[in-house]
Amino acid sequence: MKPFVLLATRAEDQPADEEYALFLRNSRLDERDLIRVRLEAAPMPRLDLDALSGIFVGGGPFNASDPPEQKTPVQHRVEAEFGALLDEVVARDFPFLGACYGVGTVGVHQGAVIDRTYSEPISVVPVTLTDAGASDPILAALPPTFNAFVGHKEAITALPGTATLLASSPTCPVQMFRVGANVYATQFHPELDVDGITVRIHAYADHGYFAADELEATLAAVRRAPVSYPSRMLRNFVERHAR
């Protein structure tokens, strides 16, 4: 089988390693078949799409809607690298699944409106599939509404005509969309479980996702409802695109 790639941007080793472990476990791939590239550490290597089965993108600290002068040189580099990669990915309709930061990367590439109108605190939210989502193969075996982990400062306010809306939540109208037949982006985190999001809550406690006195409340918020279905998407993606 040709390998998949996980493009990651987390600078902190513990949440970065936990993210990779979660993608491995929930995709049922092993380390030979899921190559991790840490973009915060070095420039993106040239990816030969003909030698790959598909691309995953993890979450991270970058916000596409931040003013250019507030973005670090690393963020500017990563955004340019994703722009060039997505030129090829979208043109070829190559299998791509971006989780959380996927909304920023694919959304910007397609001309979506991204701002802070529909930010969501770290929590569990009900995500509801659209008719297109209910018939999408990556979402097969998921119920019409399921719980998912979220936590983001920005979101898509308006999708371009090139995108198909697949899922929404009460506080964020664009939770998942597709471009073409094989390029996906989610606002929620399909890879996460309670232990994984707990690691992130502690790792990013001072990154502005919640106030200093809200740590315990945030930890409680991600335990208020079970989250069991979103990880199935990763297996579906692998089963559909492994080659």
Describe the model:
The structure is a single chain. By secondary structure, the protein is an alpha/beta fold. It has one domain: Class I glutamine amidotransferase (GATase) domain (Rossmann fold). Helix content is 31%, strand content 26%. The protein is built from seven helices and eleven strands. It has helices spanning 13-27, 73-92, 101-110, 131-134, 194-203, 215-221, 232-241; strands at 4-8, 34-38, 54-57, 96-99, 113-115, 120-129, 145-152, 155-158, 163-169, 172-179, 183-186. The strands form two sheets. The protein has a nine-stranded mixed sheet with strand order 2-1-3-4-11-10-9-6-7, with helices on both faces. A two-stranded antiparallel ribbon has the order 5-8. Helix 1 packs antiparallel against helix 5 (194-203). The model has no long low-confidence stretch (mean pLDDT 95).
Secondary structure tally: strands: 11
Q: At the first level of CATH, what is the class?
A: Alpha Beta
Strand content: 25-35%
Helix content: 25-40%
How confident overall, as mean pLDDT? 95
The helix count comes to 7
Structural class: alpha/beta
What is the secondary structure topology, with strand pairs?
Blueprint: E1 4-8, H1 13-27, E2 34-38, E3 54-57, H2 73-92, E4 96-99, H3 101-110, E5 113-115, E6 120-129, H4 131-134, E7 145-152, E8 155-158, E9 163-169, E10 172-179, E11 183-186, H5 194-203, H6 215-221, H7 232-241
Parallel strand pairs: 1-2, 1-3, 3-4, 4-11
Antiparallel strand pairs: 5-8, 6-7, 6-9, 9-10, 10-11
Helix pairs in contact: 1-5, 2-3
